[in-house]
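Can't paste images in this forum, so I'm doing it all in text. The chain is below; anyone willing to post the predicted structure tokens underneath?
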Amino acid sequence: MSMNYVGSISLMDKGDYDRGDSPAQAVLDKNARSVAQRIADETREELEKVLERVEHIYDSYENSMELIFQTQHNANMEYVNDINELEEIMKDQIKKRKYQQGLTIFIVGYENVCGQRLKLLQHVNEFFMENSKSVEEEDWFPKTPDLDLDDAAENIDQSLNKAEDLANRLGEINQEMVNWLSNYAINKASSKGKKKLEKALEKAKEDLGSLSEKLHNLQLDLEDKESKYQDLLKMLENKNLETQKYKTAAEIAKKNVTELEIDNAVMKEDLEKRKNFMKDLQRKLNRAENELSQNDMLKDIQANQISDQYQETQKKIQELQETVDKNKSKTEEVKREIEKFHETQIVAITQAHAAEVDAMKNEYEEELKKAKMTTTHR
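Text version of the structure:
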């Protein structure tokens, strides 16, 4: 009849401890305890290694998130995949001039690092899943040999009963011998026979005392083994509790890994949103630069128009001057009219030019303010 070790412990009562199988059971208990201790130690070492790796990953994640939160309010951030992409950005003169206007932080290889962290977390999660299944399915204690302990206990009980019967019978025979020898000694009444009889009686008493002492020692040995067996049971219960603690710690660590994976996914999604936002902002800045270039062209055109108008005015002045020369009598009056007309034209042209320049400047400043406000809100 095969019996699982843990199940046999739960089925034993106090009366079973006196069946005589304590030495064999103690050896089995010792082997089971050593195997359980070795498995618990190996599991604890692996769990400590994994917990250290998880703690390191979590600390790195905390530091990176803190760095992002500290720098996103103080400077612009750009995410690039590798050094080549960064070199291409630096070679672009337009982008280079834009980045020179303020502080910009370039983060190289951030997506690759996030991908590596995600793979590592997935491996850790797989480890916990496999070990949680093995903890639930694995037998922590080996099965005892296929021994019929009940039959063995019955045989031992029969042997002990026979030994007790023989001891009782030996005592009866000894008492009969003592009585017979006493009667024989009284009948013979010889001194020599008395001495031999006394020696025989002393020897019989010594044999009985030795046998009683052996029986007493055997009883003490059985009690000592029973006490040791109780201690082993307590130790096994403690080991079972410790194993349960490790299993609980593994479940908690697995839960932490799942939460880290969720946080990593959220961080990745937030990274995508930030990249899209930076792309939109880049398009707006490029559009603003194009509009600024167009405004510069309009300024050049307006300056050319003013120059043409000025030349036409100078031409008219020359024509008027010729007319003045022809009409000397009206020189002073015409001259005043010319100067007045000239000043009026210059003031009008200057005011128109200043109004157009101010309007363009205000429009450009409004565009820049809108772009900065959008960046700050993001």
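Helices lie at 5-11, 22-71, 83-91, 93-100, 110-137, 149-188, 191-326, 331-377. Confidence is low (pLDDT under 50) at residues 1-19, 135-147.
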